[in-house]
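thread: overnight batch results

M.L. [08:02]
morning all. the overnight job finished for the chain we discussed friday. pasting input first so we're all looking at the same thing
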Amino acid sequence: MPAGLHIVKKPRAGKPALWYIYAWRGGPRIHTSEGPRPKITAAITDAAADERRKLHKAPKDTIRGLIGNFKESAEWKKLAKSTKANWETWFNRVIAEFGDAPLDAFNDRRMRGEILEWRDRWAEKPRAADMAMQAFSRVLSFGFDRGKLTSNILTGIENLYDADRSDIIWEKHHFDQFMPKASIEVREAVELDACTGLRRGDLVKLPWSAIGEHAIVWKTGKSRGKAQIVIPLLPETKAVLQRIKDRHAAEMAQLPLKKRKQLPATVLSNSSWEPWTPSGFGSRFNDAKKVSGIELHLHDLRGTFATRCMIAGLTDQEIADILGWTTKDVARIRAKYVDQARVVIALAERISKVAV
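M.L. [08:03]
and the structure it wrote out:
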């Protein structure tokens, strides 16, 4: 494959797979096909070369040029890989809409309204719309810092997405609804997340080497390896880990010796016993979520983990430290789910004693 091309396969249940070819990772899409893996033709490589020429020939006094400058800057190099991937998607959309607009136009506050109208195309997906504004605003801030703009006209725009879901959790009926629609690999990931509270990017990268006798001790990607987390191993966590090992052993036992694989370095893996990518797992999770009809997010499993820690006897402060929440967030979950449930159980026990 020619250097730089990025090929993505999207499996579809009961249909041929879709294939997307991008000029580079995070770059514009230049080819789409379905069925077997597409062959790289001269037309595809020429299209990729054309996109790269457009990028390098971009006038410096346009948004296209400013984005190009930003992506060559020290500020860009400091960003996490996941942030770069997300922002590049939006940079391409910004360029498609505003790429040739002169920078002077972005000194006029009236342009703010046009940008908001563009953002509102994704209003039904508020997290995506907010990501668009985050990426766009960062480029304008870069332009302001470098003296190319007199201000950042996107400063102060409120998010559409209400990120405070700390008192929302997965309950038993949600698991009952979701699990039959998910593959075994996705089910294991959901079960593990409900027992650890890890964010998706860290969840799929969690290594077996971080699993200790009593806790998970690991430097996650969230802190770029600078901070260490310690997550207690609940009985439910140990059970999930053992089921994964048992399933691997059972599947390998059915294969000829030369086809057997060792347990992957990561706790979670896909159907080929290879580590998940965050986007690959996210896609499979969203497929199962859509079919099951639940409205909860993977992130909401952090609240479920919080309730399990409460039942195990951890204090609000201990749970807050593990999840990076405030004690008020933890207290809301305790009052809403755990304390309420304990009251009901206590009442039931008292009633049963009276009945006897």
